[in-house]
Specification:
With 382 residues, the protein is mainly α. The protein is built from 14 helices and two strands. A two-stranded antiparallel ribbon has the order 1-2.
Length: 382
Amino acid sequence: MSLPGGATSAERVDWIVGLGADPVRRNLLITQCYHDLSAALAGRLGAENANWCTFATWASRTAGRFIRDEEVPAAFRELLVGSPRLNAAVGRANRAFGWIGADVRLGEDELLAVARRIVHDVGELITEGNLKVFSELGPVFSRTLVALDVDDDGAAVERVAASLLEGESDRGGQTLLRLALGGYAAAGRTEDPRRRAALILLANARIGLHEQIRLQPYIAGSIDAPVRLALFDPVDDAAACLPRGTRALSKGVLRVVLLGAANEAKRHWQELCTRELMTLALPDETLRLGSRLPAPRGEPLYPLLLDPVDDPQTLDFLRRHQAVRPTPVASGAVNWTKLADRMRYIIDLFRSRQRWGPLQGHPFTAEQQRQLAAGLPVTGRL
């Protein structure tokens, strides 16, 4: 089965967005399409600088772990079943169930059912976020590539930018995208490699900010998943078996008794989800986003053309997001639900890896590409 349209065509993007019945394959195709868009944009602006689609390729690939339910359920299961404090709290809850004569018990199966439910719900949030960003930005980049091919003075890209909705990103606007497209076009026209690098960094950062604003509810919802409410479900089951006159009081007492177990389960989830969500798998390295950003292997933290940044607009953007100097965080210090914390790190990451060659590599092996293009199950490590 051949894929519709060219690799970066609007037709291909629309077809991928429409694959609602197969979110796993759609994520793989989104990742592949981001890579194709990245490579095509590099052909217009220069492959020495990563563009936003380059970073989006690896972010989408990493998101696939949640979408495919691969690693997280097993890790959460280990945390829940192996936690002495949680087991002690569950034991107290089970004794309370016995005291009121309710034929309900919490065991490993019930805990795993909670884990499956939460992981499923969070997987759907990540899936929705992945699709939301691609369905908006994929068409924009597809049209921009066509404009760059006919553009000598920036007019064609300006027409694409003018078609976007003016306004703030948190109110549905796309002004940040309009500015970013103008920045890419200006970068393509300049002969100064230092200025080109700064313009691309600013364009990448503006799109990154727009993207993160769009993703805010999905990220916050994932880390703050209702684990406690899921564990309270057995309380409702138990109370339903009791005489009507004692049902409300018993339900309140049971929730208090179960609160310790619920809080412990929530703590484990947030610990796991923060660790997994705050991870970005790049070629040859995995970044822990709550830790200090390391320098690329064998390189300084920032490439020479971006250290220092002397373009006034780019420098002003970095200053407003407190990203002029390396992100001063220790392990676990970043609150990934806070947009300001994420952006400080993301801008730092963009600047640090903008001229790092391995980032331009393909996210899939040749065999995986063949399988994906043929509509076959994609095998091997993803």
